[in-house]
Amino acid sequence: MPPRRRRKTSPDNGDGFGQGGQLPRPPKHVLFSKQEAGRRVRALRESQGMTQVELARSLGIPQSNVSEMERGVRGLTVHQVVKLAKALKVSTDVILLDNGKHEHKAATSLKLIRRLQRIERLPEARQRIVLKFVDALIDQETAGAVQRERG
What we know:
The chain is mainly α. It has helices spanning 34-47, 52-59, 63-70, 78-88, 92-96, 110-120, 124-150. The protein folds into 2 domains: 19-96, 434 Repressor (Amino-terminal Domain) (Orthogonal Bundle); 121-150. Helix 2 crosses helix 3 (63-70).
């Protein structure tokens, strides 16, 4: 009798991302495309001003895995969706469902968020000066837009 062949399996440390942060194969029953999942994860990450490196660190995986997820190269398991939701501080519904209740586009750019963080570190008097300047620019742009509509 020939010896039994063992199935090749990837060791898993229980985090849903495989050994060494490697993502396992996506499930056979696909609820939505890998590209759609990646688009949602990227939009959520960017809307919070989080980098791929920061998200990867909070998940305990390499940054390259986050990149592959966001590009739709890798799919997600249910366990991974739960971990992503915790890391992004959202419900799993926000990642899984596209029901119109959640806007998945990044509301602000990472550059803007970083600049706002720098402004917050300024003394209060300087913050007021910056905000008055920004308000004046917005008011000027708003007035110009109204004139263009009338003209």
